[in-house]
Structures are given as structure tokens and as C-alpha cells.
């Protein structure tokens, strides 16, 4: 450990900007960004699955509200949604006196809420498309086995739809990682927030932002790698034989 | 009627800035995209490599980070350049980076990479037989490109261009963070002053939806036009 520490100090010697202190900022930013993105994606999927099923319903009073929700959230910038949730909460009369203030006084939760609503809208449409493209034969086979609608959804349609949605969902994950950079505008110290702090403190835009760009690049490539592997495993049955 | 507390005219001015910014960056992005597509389709390995590096880097980094890098770094970079010019050649100039120009260049650069991918795929989908036919008619390379390859390519590229345009439109909101007075910035300022977020943010969201719906309609029309001779314009209508 001492050796590592010495090596690290040597590496940072003669470097005014990337001190242990600022690297700590970047590290905390990385943790915040990953937490924010991971949580909103997880919550987004939980919301999107029932919404995607409902979006294909024959009843207009289920179908149309979901369509309106995805249309509005996909048609407006995430920044506006973030401002709406953040200021909507902060400027809500009397919220400071309620128990909710404990949760919402930290900008993390309003941001998480806005991101979740945003990604859920995109994910709903991705799942919706995948469900719609289920092969007729699979549904006929399930019916021939006498499966009920719920069982068919659970055992046949959803598993095959999730596989087909995988490439598009991978893009959505990367999109969300990049979109999360706007969290820095509502006082959250995510990766971009940390980079901005370092820029403002040292007035050194190139090191501050290029360094953070490289971190984002690494994250993007890792996500792409994971999804490639997943696709290879889960979509193996769709590849030509002998390949 | 909604009372915008005197912010109405400024919101409209901001909306105009948003539209101008989006249209100008779209033009830049299309030009850059065509160049990138040709670079990526080039047989020259160096040019191909540069094209790939550009699209990979830009698509791997958040728009906001690139925007901050180019906007905050741009002024310092240009100052360093003009300083060098002064020392070396005794030329004394000062270039001030305008937030609007920086915004157009940044968004154009970002979406040039996405457009490049769209155009590359579209160029590859044009049947070679069509170009052979054009050559057999004795068309010059330029004429063959203008009359045959480009219109055929556009049919495949339009859905992608439409998607990119929708994303680009929403990305323009980010310029409000680096100090450009578009409608999002006006709304944010008004919100902070009056503590009424919904009063200002909802109309702005409505304008974005309006522009998005109008362009969806416009792209459907264009798609029909470029699909002449290919039956239904089914690609765009989903």
C-alpha cells in the first residue's frame, strides 16, 4: 500500500491540477453518476414493462394515456423535465415543513425522479416495439398449449421480446449515461459537475473536460462491451448456423 | 389567458433563438455528415481512420461535456492561437467567441458524427446497378451523383435524418447551460425570479412538442417525395 501510495504521489508530482484532492472529486462524481444512472434505469424498467403491455391494450383509456405520456416525455428535452421536477418540488408551498423535505432537499432525488420518468418513456416504446414484433407462430403455439393470457405473456412473449429489445436498450443505456450530465445543473456533483468545478477552480478547461470525457468514453465502451456479450449469449439462436 | 408576468416577449425571442440554432446546426451537421460518410467509405486508410475516430469519440462523450469543452476551451484555444500569431508574425487580432456561434459549431460537430453514420449506411444501400446505368448513359461522375446516387441515398437516409433532427432539437436546450439565451434559459430565469416553475416550463415544453410534431409532418412529406417509384412511404410512418 505504501509502495502504491509512493508511486501515486510520484505520478502526480509536478502537476498542479490533478492532485489527490481533485481526483477525489472526480471519483465522487463517478460514484454519483453511476448510482444515478443505474437506479433510474432499474426503476425505468420496472415502470416500462407494465406500460409497454398496457400500450398494446385494446382499451383506449389504457392505451391513449400511456401514448400521451411517452409522446410528451420523448418529445421534450430532459433538461426541461429536470427543471420541472426540481423547481416543482423546491418551490412547492410548505414542502419545507413536511416529512418529504428530508428526501427532496437533496437534489439527487428530484433528478432521479426526472431521469426515471424520461428513461421509462423511451424504454416503454422500445419494449412496445419488441412485443409487437413477436412472431405469430410463437403466440399460436402458446395458445395451442392452452396457456392463459398472463402465462403466455410471462413465459413466451416477454422473454422473447426482451431479447429482441436488447440492442435498442443498450443504446438507451448509453443515451442515459450521456444525458445524466445535465444533473450537474441542479447542484449535483456528478462527473460533469466535478469537471466543471475543476475547470472553474483552475481555469483550465482542456485538462478538466478532456479528463472527464475520457472517463465517459471508458464507461461507454464498457457498456457497449457488456451488451455485445449479452447479445451474443441471448441472441445465439438467431445467428446463422455454423458461424 | 395565462399571465406570463412580462416574460412573454422574451420567451418568444428565446424560442426564435432555439429554432435558429437548431436549423443552422442541422445544416452544419448535414455537411459534416456527408464529409464523414465519404471519409468512412474512402479506401484511403488514413482518411478512413480519421472518420472513424471522429464518430467514435463524439458518440462516446456526453453532448454537454463536449459543449463545455468547446465553449470554455474554445476562447482560450483561440487566444493562444492569436498570441502565437502576434509573436510570430506581429499580427494583432482578437477573436471573441460568441455563444451563439459556439453553440452552432458544437451542436453541428456532435450531430455531424451521427449524420455521418446515417449517410454511410444510406450510401451503402444504393444499388451499384443504378450507378452503372447512369454511367452507361454517359453521365459525368458529378451528374451521376446529383441525379442518381444522392436522391436514391436520401430515401434510405431520411428516417435517420428525422431521428437525428428530433434529438438535435432537444439537445439545443443544453446551450442554456453555457449562457446562451434560448427559451429554456428565459424560462429558468423566470422560474427562479417568480417561483412558478409550471407557468414557464410547461409552455416551453409545449413549443418543443409543437416543433417536433411539425417536423414529423414535414419529414413524412419529404419521405413520400423521395420514395417516388418505391410504393408506400412505409418506412417513416412506423
How does this structure look, described?
The complex is a heterodimer of chains A (243) and B (238). Chain A has helices at 2-12, 20-55, 60-75, 78-90, 100-104, 108-132, 136-144, 149-179, 191-202, 205-234. Chain A is mainly alpha-helical. Chain A has a domain at 36-169: MetI-like fold. In chain A, helix 3 crosses helix 6, helix 8 (149-179) packs antiparallel against helix 10 (205-234) and helix 9 (191-202) runs antiparallel to helix 10. The longest helix of chain A has 36 residues, at 20-55. Chain B has helices at residues 8-41, 45-60, 63-89, 99-124, 128-136, 141-171, 183-194, 197-226, 234-237. In chain B, helix 1 (8-41) runs antiparallel to helix 7. The radius of gyration of chain B is 22 Å and the shape is flat. Classes of the chains: A mainly alpha (243), B mainly alpha (238). The A-B interface holds A 71-72, 75-81, 83-84, 87-88, 91, 177-182, 184-185, 192, 195-196, 199, 205-206, 209-210, 212-213, 216-217, 220-221 and B 57, 59-66, 68-69, 72-73, 76-77, 166, 170-174, 176-177, 184, 187-188, 191-192, 195-198, 201-202, 204-205, 208-209, 212-213.
Pick out its properties.
heterodimer; A: 243 residues; mainly alpha; MetI-like fold; 10 helices; 77% helix; B: 238 residues
Structural class designation of chain B: mainly alpha
Specify the CATH class of the domain at 36-169 in chain A: Mainly Alpha
Highest CATH level, the class of the domain at 16-181 in chain B: Mainly Alpha
Largest sheet of chain A: none
Q: Roughly how many Å apart are the termini of chain A? A: 47 Å
**N to C succession of SSEs of chain A:** HHHHHHHHHH
Tally of contiguous helical segments of chain A: 10
- Indicate the overall shape of chain A: flat
Protein name (chain A): Arginine ABC transporter permease protein ArtM
Keywords (chain A): Amino-acid transport, Cell inner membrane, Cell membrane, Membrane, Transmembrane, Transmembrane helix, Transport
Membrane topology (chain A): Multi-pass membrane protein
Family (chain A): Belongs to the binding-protein-dependent transport system permease family. HisMQ subfamily.
Amino acid at each position: 500500500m505504501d509502495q502504491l501510495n509512493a508511486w501515486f504521489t510520484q505520478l502526480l508530482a509536478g502537476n498542479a491540477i490533478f492532485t489527490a484532492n481533485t481526483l477525489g472529486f472526480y471519483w465522487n462524481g463517478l460514484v454519483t453518476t453511476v448510482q444515478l444512472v443505474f437506479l433510474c434505469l432499474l426503476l425505468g424498467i420496472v415502470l416500462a414493462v407494465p406500460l409497454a403491455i398496457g400500450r398494446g391494450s385494446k382499451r383506449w383509456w389504457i392505451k391513449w394515456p400511456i401514448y400521451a405520456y411517452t409522446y410528451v416525455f420523448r418529445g421534450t428535452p430532459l433538461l426541461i423535465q429536470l427543471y420541472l421536477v426540481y423547481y416543482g418540488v423546491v418551490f412547492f408551498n410548505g414542502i419545507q415543513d413536511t416529512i418529504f423535505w428530508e428526501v427532496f432537499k437533496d437534489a439527487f432525488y428530484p433528478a432521479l425522479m426526472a431521469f426515471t420518468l424520461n428513461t421509462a418513456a423511451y424504454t416503454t416504446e422500445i419494449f412496445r416495439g419488441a412485443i409487437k414484433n413477436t412472431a405469430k407462430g410463437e403466440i399460436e403455439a402458446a395458445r395451442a398449449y392452452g396457456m392463459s393470457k398472463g402465462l403466455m405473456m410471462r413465459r413466451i412473449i416477454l422473454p422473447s421480446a426482451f431479447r429482441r429489445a436488447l440492442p435498442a436498450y443498450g443504446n438507451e443505456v448509453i443515451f442515459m449515461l450521456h444525458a445524466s450530465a445535465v444533473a450537474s445543473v441542479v447542484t449535483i456533483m456528478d462527473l460533469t459537475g466535478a469537471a466543471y468545478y475543476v475547470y472553474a477552480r483552475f481555469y483550465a478547461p482542456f485538462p478538466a473536460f478532456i479528463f472527464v470525457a475520457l472517463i465517459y468514453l471508458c464507461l461507454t465502451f464498457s457498456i457497449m462491451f457488456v451488451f455485445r456479450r449479452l447479445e451474443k449469449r441471448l441472441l445465439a439462436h438467431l445467428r446463422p448456423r455454423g458461424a | 389567458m395565462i399571465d406570463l408576468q412580462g416574460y412573454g416577449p422574451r420567451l418568444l425571442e428565446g424560442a426564435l433563438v432555439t429554432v435558429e440554432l437548431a436549423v443552422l446546426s442541422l445544416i452544419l451537421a448535414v455537411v459534416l455528415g456527408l464529409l464523414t460518410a465519404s471519409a468512412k467509405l474512402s479506401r484511403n486508410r488514413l482518411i478512413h481512420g480519421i472518420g472513424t475516430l471522429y464518430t467514435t469519440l463524439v458518440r462516446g462523450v456526453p453532448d454537454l461535456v463536449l459543449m463545455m469543452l468547446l465553449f470554455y476551451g474554445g476562447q482560450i484555444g483561440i487566444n493562444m492561437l492569436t498570441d502565437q500569431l502576434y509573436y510570430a508574425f506581429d499580427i494583432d487580432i482578437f477573436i471573441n467567441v460568441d455563444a451563439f456561434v459556439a453553440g452552432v459549431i458544437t451542436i453541428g460537430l456532435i450531430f455531424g458524427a451521427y449524420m455521418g453514420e446515417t449517410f454511410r449506411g444510406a450510401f451503402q444501400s444504393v444499388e451499384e446497378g443504378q450507378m452503372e446505368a447512369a454511367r452507361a448513359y454517359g453521365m459525368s461522375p458529378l451528374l451521376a451523383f446529383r441525379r442518381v446516387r444522392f436522391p436514391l441515398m436520401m430515401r434510405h437516409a431520411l428516417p435517420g435524418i428525422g431521428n437525428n433532427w428530433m434529438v438535435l432539437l432537444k439537445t439545443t436546450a443544453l446551450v442554456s447551460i453555457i449562457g446562451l439565451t434560448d427559451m429554456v434559459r428565459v424560462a429558468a430565469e423566470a422560474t427562479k425570479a417568480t417561483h412558478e416553475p409550471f407557468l414557464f416550463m410547461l409552455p416551453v415544453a409545449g413549443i418543443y412538442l409543437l416543433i417536433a410534431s411539425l417536423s414529423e409532418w414535414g419529414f413524412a412529406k419529404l419521405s413520400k417525395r423521395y420514395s417516388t417509384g418505391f410504393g408506400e412511404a412505409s418506412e417513416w410512418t412506423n
